[in-house]
Amino acid sequence: MNCDPACGAKLQEACGVCGGFAADQPLAFLNCFSLYALQHRGQESAGIAAGPGNGRKLWLKKGMGLVSDVFPDSADLKGIVCKLAIGHVRYSYGQEGRAPENTQPLKLRYRHGELAVVHNGHLLNSAELREELECQGAIFQTDTDSELLAHMVARQGSSCLADALAAVVPRLKGAFAFIVSDGHKVIGLRDGYGFRPLSIASLDGGGYFLASETCAFDTIGASFIRDMEPGEMVILDENGLHSRRLVDSPCHKLCVFEYIYFARPDSNLKGINVHLVRRELGRQLAREHPVKADIVSGVPDSSIAAASGFAEEAGLPYEMGLVKNRYIGRTFIKPTQKMREEGVDIKLNAVKKIVEGKSVVLVDDSIVRGTTSVKLIKIMRRAGAREVHLRISSPPVKGSCFYGIDIPDAHELIAYNRPADEIPALIEADSIGYLSMEKTVKAIGLSADQLCRACFTGHYPVLPG
């Protein structure tokens, strides 16, 4: 997805987490490189907390910006003596502020020592829990719902972090992948629906590591063991790896957009490679919505695999019709109003010699408000494309997400209460084709009830309130 995050025209993920425990590993350094691998999941802030494994004071460094901004000399992290470390990259969700105090890991001191927390997801009952805790005298330092976990743990009588978490987790409603440390151990938690991914790996030379995606394991040379189960707590300490079941009847509802867009192509989710899924999404799309055209092009970067699959199935040449400028920082001078009206985008440009005079199939992974699609089509037409046929490798997004994905309110979505045949006129495309829900599920290779598809179907596994 390719627009300026400030415009809100495309979906945004809400954080990547990692952490591990090992006796003889540069864990702070390994966490840093894992965060580089997870950078696509959040670009607002990054941070690492590390400790010697004996409960003494945790070392913490975090800040606004990319991993490279916060840790410009990552080699220095090799000098940190530690047996455990956890890390985080962040994209703020909903009303959470984009402010330094909301960066993670959160580190708090309580009666049993220190507690560091990183979180991916969204708690549906955060408002009521916060009000309850404030009535009991709690003072919150951040706007994040991640801080709730620390306050609730601090109110448990047990000095054992695992026991305290086991008592707290049943009260949490919504989507979460937490990694927590008290300086003695690292603990991973996954909600009972498994909305957000979290996996386990072994480290070469001993120890274990957790991360949102398997691509992080590849980066640090760790060996994938398995995905954490929904409702599972995994404890990493000097005695190895231990697991506890915290939910009696867990469900499998992994977010379908992990396959369509969020996860990196080299990651595997539930044993299925993301790149291969996206290519199959494109093939299914070509079967459902064929079109007479000259070339196929994908919107970089997430739609390249789907576009190549479409081209293969349709027997059309795949061409790089759009080029992405990868060297623009998070802040840059906006185009003038005239440039915006004409669809000028500093991040994307069409290759005129490829698209000029051609009928182009442009493949994208989704449409949210439609503003990015309008811009893309204007770019192609300005470069001389004779026709632009938009093909979307997912169903129409018709509902908001309550589980940590920043989707606008339903009435802001271009497909909300609007038939697909009305959309081409709104975005100035010659035609549009969405992949059906049935074929989306078929391309992924899981049963429909193993995936959360609420933003497409309006059927939510668990609701706020």
Question: How would you summarize this macromolecular structure in one to three sentences?
Answer:
The chain has helices at residues 27-37, 67-70, 126-135, 146-154, 161-168, 215-220, 257-262, 274-288, 304-314, 337-341, 352-355, 371-382, 423-427, 437-444, 454-457, and strands at residues 16-21, 45-51, 59-64, 84-90, 106-110, 113-123, 174-181, 186-190, 199-202, 208-211, 223-227, 232-237, 240-245, 254-255, 268-269, 272-273, 295-298, 322-324, 348-350, 359-364, 387-392, 431-434, 451-452.
Number of domains: 2
The total count of strands amounts to 23
CATH architecture of the largest domain: 4-Layer Sandwich
How is the main sheet built?
A: 7 strands, antiparallel
Structural write-up:
By secondary structure, the protein is α+β, with helices and mostly antiparallel strands. The chain folds into 2 domains: 5-251, Glutamine Phosphoribosylpyrophosphate, subunit 1, domain 1 (4-Layer Sandwich), CATH 3.60.20; 276-445, Rossmann fold, CATH 3.40.50. The protein contains 15 helices and 23 strands. The chain has helices at residues 27-37, 67-70, 126-135, 146-154, 161-168, 215-220, 257-262, 274-288, 304-314, 337-341, 352-355, 371-382, 423-427, 437-444, 454-457, and strands spanning 16-21, 45-51, 59-64, 84-90, 106-110, 113-123, 174-181, 186-190, 199-202, 208-211, 223-227, 232-237, 240-245, 254-255, 268-269, 272-273, 295-298, 322-324, 348-350, 359-364, 387-392, 431-434, 451-452. It has a 7-stranded antiparallel β-sheet with strand order 3-2-4-1-10-9-11. It has a 6-stranded antiparallel β-sheet with strand order 5-6-7-8-12-13, covered by helices on one side. The protein has a 4-stranded parallel β-sheet with strand order 17-20-21-22, sandwiched between helices. Helix 4 (146-154) packs across helix 5, helix 8 packs across helix 9 and helix 8 packs antiparallel against helix 14 (437-444). The longest helix is centred in the middle third of the chain and has 15 residues, at 274-288. The radius of gyration is 23 Å and the shape is globular.
